[in-house]
Amino acid sequence: MNFETEYKNIRFLISLEQENYTDVSLLMGDKFNRLPNQTMIEIKKGQLAPYNLVITSIQDDEEYTHYLSGILLTSNKEELLEELGSYLEQEHILDDIVAKRVRYAVSPGPIWKQ
């Protein structure tokens, strides 16, 4: 699933890809043992699935790529976009990216960049 949006004068290209694992415990590592029982049941039933999120942020010809993996979201395609939007908002993902871009912005930048 691919889409784009603009937030705080930064263009975001967002790609969400479902991971395909036969054993979800391999994906989750130590976190798997700490998941609530209900979450583990939903994973086993196929109601939740792990996803990778790739976000490219573009501003003033500067492009950065941000990766998030192992995100548990619904496997229901009709509800996925809404749930992803809630995830991005609740976890402040776009705000964090904006803050990182501001924090690491160097003007006019290093000599090699000029």
Question: Layout of helices and strands, plus pairs?
Answer:
Elements: E1 2-7, E2 10-18, H1 24-28, H2 30-34, H3 37-45, E3 48-59, E4 62-74, H4 77-90, H5 93-104
Antiparallel strand pairs: 1-2, 2-3, 3-4
Termini separation: 36 Å
Any idea what the shape is?
elongated
Order of helices and strands: EEHHHEEHH
The fraction of residues in strands falls at 35-45%
The structural domain count equals 1
Structural class, from secondary structure content? alpha+beta
Helix count from the secondary structure assignment = 5
Report helical residue fraction.
25-40%
Note the main sheet.
4 strands, antiparallel
Q: Number of DSSP strands?
A: 4
Task: Write out the strand line-up for the largest beta sheet, numbering strands in chain order.
Answer: 1-2-3-4
Low-pLDDT sequence parts = none
Mean pLDDT: 84
Evaluate the radius of gyration: 17 Å
